[in-house]
C-alpha cells in the first residue's frame, strides 16, 4: 500500500522524504569501512522525531537495525521522545518475537513520560495475542480500561480475535456479550471466526446467540447466516448438530439453499461418514441440485480414506451422468496415482483434461511436473512446466518450490540450479526457505562445492534485494509504512537475516594467511601481533570462511571472533554469531555458547537459527535433557521450531547416548502436526530407534502414516523393513515383507541389501545367496551394501580368499567400494591378525580415496589397541587431527588404556596431555 504523508495523518511543512531516504540508506546498508553510528554522526542530517519515526518504519523488516538506530539516536543531545516513535518500536519488537525488548520499551516509555495512546494498547494486545500470550493480552486490555481509555469496537474485536485464535471460545463469548450490551457489532469475518470457535467448544446456545445477533443486529440475510452456522458445525465435527439444523430448517419450511447440502456433504466426508454423504448425493440427484463441486468433495473424501478404487468409480459415474470434472478433481486423482506409482494412469488423466478443454491451473500443471520428475523424466517435466507461459500462467514462487522439492527427492541437483536460474530470470525473489531446502538437499548428497555455490547465490540475492530496496527508484514515493491505527494490525511478518554489503568473493590468500596465523601458535598475544601486521580488510564472507576453516582450533577461532568484532568498519551478524556458537558447542564449551547467544540478542541480531544450533550441539553430546529444556525455552520465547530444529532434536533423542524414546515419539508427532516433512535420514534414525527398543507398533503406525505426507508405499515400508533388519529383527522384517500389499518388486529392490545383511548376520548364508540370485533374475544387480555384507561374512568365517574375491568382483563390475567397504576389509584383516595388510588398505584409502572418516579411524584405533598395537593407534590420533577430524574422548581413552596394558605408562601420560591440549585448544575459557 503506498501512502503519502497526508494519508498518514502527519501534517508536515516540508518534504522530509529525501532526509529519511538518506538516513535509511546508512542504517540498512552499512558501509564496510565505517560503522553506521559514525556515518550518521558525520552526515549532518536532521533527526527530528517525525524523521526518526519514518526511518524506523522503513526498518521494520530488519528489527536488529531498527533497535541499533533507535539506541544511537536517543543518545543525541536534544532528542525528543514521542509516543509515535515508541509505538513503532513496540510493533517492531513484537513482530520480531522479542518480548524482552517490548517490556524494556514500556519501562523506557514510562521513564520518559510518554503517554500511551489507543494505538499503543492495540499494538500490545495484538502482538501478545500473536505469540499466544493470552494472559498478557487480557492484562493489557484491563490496564487500558483502568487508564481511562474507551474500549471501542476495535479494542473488543482485537481481544475476541486473539481469544478465538487461541481456541478460548468461552472467554471470547464473555467479551462478545459485553460488546452486545454496549450495542457494538463485529465485522463479518470476525463473526465467522467466533462461530467456528464456539462451535468447536460445543456451546450450542452460544452458536445460536451469535447467529441471532448476526441477523438481528448486523442485518446479515438469514439464508447467509444459516450457511455460516452449518459450516462452523461441520468444521468442528459436530455432524449431529448440523443434521438437526437441517431438520429444523425443513420444519420452518425455509427453502434449503443447495450450498447447504455441499457444506453438509463436506462435513460428513471430513467425519469419515461417506456412506451418509452418498445418501445426500442421491437426494440431491432427485432434486436436481447436484453440481461438479459435490462430486469433487466426495471423491476427495474417498481419497482421504486411501480408497482410490471407489474414488475412480465415482469419478467415472460423474462423467457418465454428464458432469465435467473440475481441474481440482482431476488433480487430486492424478496426485494420488503418481504417489502409488501409477504413472501411466496419471498421465492419461492429464491428457484427458486437455482433450476435454478443462482449464488447467498451476496446481494441475505442477502435479504433472511432479509425476514426470518422480519417474526421472526431467525433459518432459520441463516441457509441462514451460507450457504454463503458453497458457498465460505465470509460475508462482510456490510452483518453483514444488519443482525444487521433487528434484531433490530424486537427487537431481544439477536441475535444481536450473530452476534457481529460471527464478532469477523471472525476477521472483528466492526466499530463505528455498535456499535452506536446496542446501539441505545438497548436504545430504555430500555435494560440498555446490553447497558453497548456493550459499554464495543466497548472499548475492540478499545484497541485490537490499540494493533495490535502498536505491532512489526503490524508495521514490514508496515508503513502507506501518499504519498502526489499522484495526486488525495484520501485517505480514518477514524473517529477515541481517544483511551487509558483501563482496561477491573474498580473497583466498587473505583467508589462508589468517588461518595460518591462527594455527601457528597457542599464545594469543603472538597471534594478535600477526593479525595486526597482516593489514587485511575483514568482510562478512571472509570472517565466516576463516571461522569455518579454523573451527578445529576452537579457542583461537573464538578469540579471533572477539578480536575482529572490535575492528573499525566491521560488524558481526547473525551468521558469524551462529558460526561462533557452533564452534563453542563442538568444543563442549556450553557456557561460552550461551554467552554468545545472549550477546547476539543484546546486539539485536536475529536468534531464530541460533536456537536450533544450540539444541543440536547439546543433543550431539548426549545432553538431551538440556536440549529438551532449550527446545521448550525456544517456544516459550515465541520462536517456532523449524524442520531442522525438530530433526536435530529427534535424532539426538534417538541416539544411544542420552536416548529418550518417549520424548522422541512426542516431538516427531508434533513435527508432523506442524506441517514439516521428515527427510530420509531422520526417518531412518527414528524408525531404527523404535525397532531397537521394541516399539514396533509405533514404528508400524509411523510407516503407515507416511503416505499422508507424500511418501510412496514402497519407500515407507522399505524404511521400516531396513530398520527392523538393523535392529536384528529379521523375523519381523520378513513378516512385514510378506504382509505388505504394495508393489512387491519395487519394495524388494529397496530392501534386499538390508535383508541380505541381516541374513548373513544370523548365519543364514544359503538364504542370503538365494536372495541375491533371485534379485539377479529380476535384473537387479548386487549393490555395494550387498557386496560389503558378503565381505564381512567371509572375514567372520575366516575365508580371506572369498572376501578378496568379492572385493575384486566389485571393482571389475564397476561397483565403487565405499568407506564402509574399506573399513570392513581393515576390520577383517585385523581380526585375522594381519596388521600389515590392514595398514596397506588404510594407506590405499588415504592415497586413492575414499578418505577415512571418523568411524574408520575409531574402528582402526579399537582394533589396534585390542591387538596390543596401541603405539600405532596413538599415531592415528595425530593423523585424525591432520585430516581435520577431531578425536573423541573415547578414542583417547581406548589408546590410554591400551598403552597402560602394554606397560607403556609414559606414552599413556602423553596421550592424556594431548587430550588436555585438544580440550584447551577448543574451549575458550577467557575471551579477549
From TrEMBL:
Domain of life, source organism: Eukaryota
GO BP term, pick one: chloroplast-nucleus signaling pathway
Alphabetically ordered keywords of this record: Repeat
Keyword Flavoprotein belongs to the record: no
An annotated GO cellular component: chloroplast
Pfam family membership, one: PPR
Gene3D superfamilies documented for this protein: Tetratricopeptide repeat domain
PPR repeats: 117-151, 152-186, 222-256, 257-287, 291-325, 326-360, 361-395, 607-641, 642-678, 748-782, 783-817, 818-852, 853-887
NCBIfam families registered for this protein in UniProt: PPR (TIGR00756)
Family named by the database record: Belongs to the PPR family. P subfamily.
Identification of the protein by name: Pentacotripeptide-repeat region of PRORP domain-containing protein
Organism of provenance: Gossypium tomentosum (Hawaiian cotton)
Amino acid at each position: 500500500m503506498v501512502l503519502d504523508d497526508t494519508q498518514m495523518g502527519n501534517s508536515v511543512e516540508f518534504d522530509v522524504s529525501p532526509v529519511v531516504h538518506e538516513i535509511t540508506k546508512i542504517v540498512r546498508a552499512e558501509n564496510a569501512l565505517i560503522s553506521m553510528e559514525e556515518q550518521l554522526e558525520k552526515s549532518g542530517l536532521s533527526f527530528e522525531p517525525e524523521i526518526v519515526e519514518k526511518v524506523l518504519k522503513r526498518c521494520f523488516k530488519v528489527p536488529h537495525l531498527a533497535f541499533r538506530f533507535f539506541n544511537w539516536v536517543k543518545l543525541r543531545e536534544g532528542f525528543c521522545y514521542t509516543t509515535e516513535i515508541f509505538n513503532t518500536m513496540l510493533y517492531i519488537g513484537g513482530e520480531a518475537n522479542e518480548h524482552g525488548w517490548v517490556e524494556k520499551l514500556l519501562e523506557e516509555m514510562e521513564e520518559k513520560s510518554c503517554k500511551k495512546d489507543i494505538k499503543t494498547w492495540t499494538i500490545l494486545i495484538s502482538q501478545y495475542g500473536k505469540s499466544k500470550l493470552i494472559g498478557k493480552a487480557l492484562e493489557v486490555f484491563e490496564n487500558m480500561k483502568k487508564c481511562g481509555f474507551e474500549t471501542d469496537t476495535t479494542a473488543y474485536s482485537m481481544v475476541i480475535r486473539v481469544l478465538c485464535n487461541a481456541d478460548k471460545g468461552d472467554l471470547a463469548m464473555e467479551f462478545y456479550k459485553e460488546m452486545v450490551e454496549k450495542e457494538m457489532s463485529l465485522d463479518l469475518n470476525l463473526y465467522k471466526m467466533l462461530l467456528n470457535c464456539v462451535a468447536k467448544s460445543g456451546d450450542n446456545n452460544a452458536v445460536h446467540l451469535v447467529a441471532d445477533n448476526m441477523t438481528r443486529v448486523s442485518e446479515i440475510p438469514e439464508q447467509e447466516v444459516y450457511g455460516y452456522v452449518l459450516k462452523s458445525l461441520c468444521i468442528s465435527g459436530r455432524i449431529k448438530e448440523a443434521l438437526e439444523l437441517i431438520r429444523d430448517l425443513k420444519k420452518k419450511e425455509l427453502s434449503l439453499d443447495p450450498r447447504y447440502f455441499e457444506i453438509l456433504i463436506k462435513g460428513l466426508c471430513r467425519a469419515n461418514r461417506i456412506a451418509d454423504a452418498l445418501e445426500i448425493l442421491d437426494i440431491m440427484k432427485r432434486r436436481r441440485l447436484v453440481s461438479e463441486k459435490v462430486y469433487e468433495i466426495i471423491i476427495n473424501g474417498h481419497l482421504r480414506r486411501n480408497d482410490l478404487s471407489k474414488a475412480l468409480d465415482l469419478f467415472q459415474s460423474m462423467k457418465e451422468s454428464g458432469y465435467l470434472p473440475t481441474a481440482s478433481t482431476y488433480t487430486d486423482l492424478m496426485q494420488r496415482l503418481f504417489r502409488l506409482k501409477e504413472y501411466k494412469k496419471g498421465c492419461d488423466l492429464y491428457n484427458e483434461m486437455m482433450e476435454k478443454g478443462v482449464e488447467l491451473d498451476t496446481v494441475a500443471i505442477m502435479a504433472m511436473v511432479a509425476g514426470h520428475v518422480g519417474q526421472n523424466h526431467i525433459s518432459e517435466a520441463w516441457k509441462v512446466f514451460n507450457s504454463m507461459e503458453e497458457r498465460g500462467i505465470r509460475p508462482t514462487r510456490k510452483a518453483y518450490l514444488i519443482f525444487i522439492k521433487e528434484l531433490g527427492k530424486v537427487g537431481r541437483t544439477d536441475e535444481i540450479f536450473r530452476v534457481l536460474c529460471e527464478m532469477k530470470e523471472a525476477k521472483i525473489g528466492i526466499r530463505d526457505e528455498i535456499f535452506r531446502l536446496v542446501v539441505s538437499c545438497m548436504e545430504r548428497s555430500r555435494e560440498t562445492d555446490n553447497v558453497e555455490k548456493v550459499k554464495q547465490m543466497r548472499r548475492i540475492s540478499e545484497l541485490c534485494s537490499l540494493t533495490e530496496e535502498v536505491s532512489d527508484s526503490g524508495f521514490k514515493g514508496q515508503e513502507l509504512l506501518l499504519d498502526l491505527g489499522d484495526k486488525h494490525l495484520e501485517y505480514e511478518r518477514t524473517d529477515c537475516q541481517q544483511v551487509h554489503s558483501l563482496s561477491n568473493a573474498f580473497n583466498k590468500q587473505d583467508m589462508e594467511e589468517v588461518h595460518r596465523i591462527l594455527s601457528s601458535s597457542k599464545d594469543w598475544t603472538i597471534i594478535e601481533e600477526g593479525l595486526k601486521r597482516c593489514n587485511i580488510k575483514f568482510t562478512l564472507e571472509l570472517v565466516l570462511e576463516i571461522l569455518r576453516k579454523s573451527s578445529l582450533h576452537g579457542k583461537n577461532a573464538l578469540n579471533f571472533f572477539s578480536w575482529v568484532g572490535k575492528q573499525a568498519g566491521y560488524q558481526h551478524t547473525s551468521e558469524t554469531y551462529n558460526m561462533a556458537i557452533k564452534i563453542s558447542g563442538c568444543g563442549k564449551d556450553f557456557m561460552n555458547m550461551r554467552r554468545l547467544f545472549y550477546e547476539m540478542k543484546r546486539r539485536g541480531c536475529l536468534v531464530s537459527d541460533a536456537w536450533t544450533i544450540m539444541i543440536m550441539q547439546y543433543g550431539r553430546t548426549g545432553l538431551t535433557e538440556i536440549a529438551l529444556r532449550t527446545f521448550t525455552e525456544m517456544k516459550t520465547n515465541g520462536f517456532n521450531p523449524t524442520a531442522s530444529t525438530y530433526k536435530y532434536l529427534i535424532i539426538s533423542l534417538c541416539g544411544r547416548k542420552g536416548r529418550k524414546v518417549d520424548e522422541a515419539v512426542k516431538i516427531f508427532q508434533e513435527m508432523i502436526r506442524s506441517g514439516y516433512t521428515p527427510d530420509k535420514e531422520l526417518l531412518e534414525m527414528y524408525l531404527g530407534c523404535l525397532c531397537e527398543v521394541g516399539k514396533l507398533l509405533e514404528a508400524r503406525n509411523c510407516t503407515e502414516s507416511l503416505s499422508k505426507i507424500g511418501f510412496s508405499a514402497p519407500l515407507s515400508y522399505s524404511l521400516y523393513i531396513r530398520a527392523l533388519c538393523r535392529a536384528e529383527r529379521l523375523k519381523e522384517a520378513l513378516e512385514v515383507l510378506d504382509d505388505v500389499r504394495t508393489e512387491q518388486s519395487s519394495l524388494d529392490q529397496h530392501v534386499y541389501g538390508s535383508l541380505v545383511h541381516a541374513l548373513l548376520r544370523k548365519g543364514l548364508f544359503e538364504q542370503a545367496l538365494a536372495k541375491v540370485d533371485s534379485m539377479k533374475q529380476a535384473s537387479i544387480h548386487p549393490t555395494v551394501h550387498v557386496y560389503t555384507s558378503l565381505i564381512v561374512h567371509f572375514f567372520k568365517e575366516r575365508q580371506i580368499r572369498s572376501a578378496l574375491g568379492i572385493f575384486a568382483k566389485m571393482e571389475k563390475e564397476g561397483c565403487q567400494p565405499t568407506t564402509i567397504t574399506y573399513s570392513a576389509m581393515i576390520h577383517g584383516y585385523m581380526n585375522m591378525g594381519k596388521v600389515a595388510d590392514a595398514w596397506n588398505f588404510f594407506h590405499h584409502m588415504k592415497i586413492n580415496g575414499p578418505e577415512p572418516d571418523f568411524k574408520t579411524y575409531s574402528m582402526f584405533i579399537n582394533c589396534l589397541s585390542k591387538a596390543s598395537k596401541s603405539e600405532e593407534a596413538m599415531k592415528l590420533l595425530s593423523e585424525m587431527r591432520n585430516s581435520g577430524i577431531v578425536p573423541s574422548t573415547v578414542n583417547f581413552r581406548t589408546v590410554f588404556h591400551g598403552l597402560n596394558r602394554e606397560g607403556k605408562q609414559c606414552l599413556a601420560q602423553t596421550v592424556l596431555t594431548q587430550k588436555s591440549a585438544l580440550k584447551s585448544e577448543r574451549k575458550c575459557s577467557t575471551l579477549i
